[in-house]
Design brief:
Chain lengths: 463, 463
């Protein structure tokens, strides 16, 4: 089984919550197989001015390959909750619906559907858990990385950002998918070799303290490593940072024209101060081309502070805080029934509502800047702007626009779309004035009508 | 490929940071293959009074099966950094070292090695990323869940706790491994069907709002679902919680002796108030046996508050906040070189130090309560108490004590060891008086000697 196919494994249909399967059986038994509309969206933003949609590719791969293996069916049979004829029906199960989605790398806002699934209700329901799992987490990762990249590019300089987060991320799937999401958001490379292979990402790395410590002297380690990797980045802070820098300078003097070390890495202490002192030592020795990389507990705020302090840092290795989106480790994402059998549906529970029916998002521009989004009903015309939802799957098959896209194209799309956002959304702080997402008159009317109908139905049921 | 074997896939050796591979080549080229000692430990605790060690089983599976497939070697070959004869050597690579570890489900504290790897330096180095990735995340998950279970069992009542977190956890591996870690920590069941299958965990679930909404009336949905699943738990808050409860009561009156509904679930609104009102309605109707389950943004603090308010809740569905360990989404875990070629090693960088050499942890008890841990050198005798580190692998093969253990045994071990901790560590708040972890005189002397030797060596190198 090829590596990237792991998630298409024989039991992928079991990557779901049990209740999706019990509800599926109930729908099957009740003969409820009319078309449902489900929206996947985020209810609110906390400490983010926008989200960067991500994870659609894995969602579509899943829907294309969703099936129940014999092994999965045997397991379900053991649960004593499923009828043999239902399990028989599951053995032929496939996703046959339509999917509408915002392209990966597009900024999105609360209430806007990132994915809209239109399918027989049981199929759409079953997919909820995996779709939420992948799109929530990947959108979270891309959104965090977009901020880190924003901070690192302060003043228009494209400083390098590398993902060093694998060791403290939540498992292997997180490490793979986040490395991909980070790249889409503008991160330049990852240390994660498996992610490099799976997605064709640039991989990068320097050296660890343990390598230095295993040698009798720091200088021996530097010489050996750069002999093997002449353009490497040397980690200089194992014992004393500036002593480490002086050793690099001594090597340059020894090696003359053969000296090709690309940079040094600082991983502890006062990074701003040490970067300045290191820069001075290197420059005084004529080593203006030797770059300074920094790592150690970095996030967008620390990077911004370092650059504000004038730290001459050329690249950042960012680990745990980006890798776990530490300040905001989950999004308030949901997957809500918006329609069934041609009728709009919604939930009335306080603060857990949704927009009924199918819809489209229109992004409206002024002078090249995105000014507001209008959520309209699916068949409305007359709203100027760019529609965001594409039809990416028809009857369970990908459409042309739903085909897998080269990652570099997604990355370019993300950079272009993020740059179109109003400047106030590019700040790391919370923008006082949030981006406007409004409902069209028709959508507003549908919302009110649906709510009124539901209240009426409740009254009838109770009377 | 069987499902639980996913991580033994042909490319598992690529689940690493690139620098582990470049360092491995450097060690190979330099002929450095003497034995290294690496400790995996957590440097400090934030908002936790103890950690529950978890993830060893996956770490050992990885070390047992670690190898480079042809596909992996081809990928490395494309990177233009690796010598063909090194890649040839990798094709026969296997982990041949010894491993010492604290059993899964054991409470641990800062500086205590959870795993100690003793192996040829390149082998031990390569394993760093995967071991940190799995043990950090799983220990994080078990530690968070231990607090949630503690809160739910307030007053000595074993209220149920179910993991509902898959949808917002960080990918599929996180959802699988955390469900296992939660079970070890005392969580009773998971909604994640794949985790149920992979690890034999009890799986559970109720119904979603969308199921109710897809029916014309809430009562129809209740009747259909309970006809199929007579002992189900009905979600009552889709439209109006107490109206929902009254419908359950009406069903009980309709069905008489055949009524077997196990409970109701509340998922929005003022849970304490709604639980009390629901309990009253149910009790007045003679339905004392119908349990009340609650979900919606729960964590240990919210559960404790609900119970403090006297909410008559019998079980909790806990999702995102436990699933992402939201208040603390990573541990400050590290994997540090402590010895090489028989010599103790350490890093001098400020605040990033480690204890040199091999070691043992002795847990000392008074009247059945754990009073303090002493970190001793590996060959010390004469410290009363229970040693925590077992030898789980010898020459790359599991020892008897390192064999996979039944999950229920691990869960029982965890419950017993957590209950032995001093009461002050069982509070959800930060215990003012932290648990004592001290160094033996011999360990203290080794630390001082190693530090002095390193300073001396630095002086010599610079002079």
């Amino acid at each position: 089984m090829p590596f990237t196919d792991q998630l298409r494994s024989e039991t992928s249909a079991l990557y779901t919550d049990l209740y999706q399967l019990t509800m599926l059986q109930a729908y099957w038994r009740e003969g409820m197989d009319e078309t449902a509309v489900f929206d996947l969206f985020v209810r609110r933003l906390t400490d983010r001015n926008y989200l960067l949609a991500c994870g659609l590719e894995q969602a579509l791969e899943y829907l294309e390959h969703l099936s129940f293996s014999d092994e999965a069916l045997d397991y379900l049979d053991e649960q004593d909750q499923f009828d043999p004829s239902f399990l028989e029906w599951l053995s032929d199960f496939a996703f046959t619906g339509n999917v509408y989605a915002v392209p990966e790398g597009t900024p999105v806002f609360p209430d806007e559907p990132i994915v809209e699934v239109v399918a027989p209700i049981g199929e759409a329901q079953l997919a909820e858990t995996f779709l939420l799992n992948q799109i929530t987490f990947q959108t979270l990762a891309a959104s965090k990385a977009s901020r880190v990249v924003q901070a690192a590019h302060q003043g228009g300089t494209d400083r390098l950002v590398a993902d060093f987060g694998m060791r403290r991320m939540h498992g292997t799937d997180a490490a793979l998918k986040a490395a991909r999401a980070f790249y889409i958001a503008g991160v330049d490379a990852t240390s994660n070799v498996a992610a490099g292979k799976a997605y064709g990402l640039p991989i990068t790395g320097t050296m660890a303290h343990s390598y230095i410590e295993a040698h009798d002297a720091e200088m021996d380690a530097f010489r050996e490593f750069s002999d093997l990797y002449p353009e490497t980045i040397l980690l200089v802070d194992t014992y004393d940072t500036l002593d480490g820098v002086r050793k690099v300078i001594a090597m340059a003097e020894e090696n003359g024209e053969d000296f090709r070390i690309r940079g040094i890495r600082l991983d502890s202490g006062n990074l701003a101060e040490l970067a300045k002192q290191s820069r001075r030592l290197l420059d005084d020795a004529g080593l203006e081309d030797v770059m300074i990389f920094a790592s150690s507990g970095l996030d967008e705020h620390k990077i911004a502070r370092l650059l504000d302090q004038g730290a001459p840092i050329d690249g950042f290795g960012v680990g745990t805080k980006m890798g776990t989106s530490a300040d905001q480790p989950a999004l308030d994402s949901v997957y809500k029934l918006c329609g069934y059998a041609g009728q709009p549906r919604m939930k009335l529970s306080a603060q857990k509502s949704n927009l009924p029916g199918r819809k489209q998002i229109i992004r409206q521009y002024e002078d090249g800047t995105a000014r507001r989004d209008v959520i309209v009903t699916e068949d409305e015309n007359g709203h100027p702007g760019a529609p965001l939802l594409d039809r990416v799957m028809t009857d369970g098959e990908r459409t042309e626009v739903g085909a897998a896209r080269p990652l570099d194209a997604v990355r370019e799309h993300a950079a272009a779309r993020v740059s179109e956002l109003p400047d106030r959304l590019h700040t790391l702080g919370h923008s006082e004035e949030s981006y406007d997402v409004v409902l069209s008159d028709e959508m507003e009317a549908r919302l009110n009508d649906t709510r009124a109908d539901l209240h009426e139905a409740m009254r009838e049921e109770l009377s």
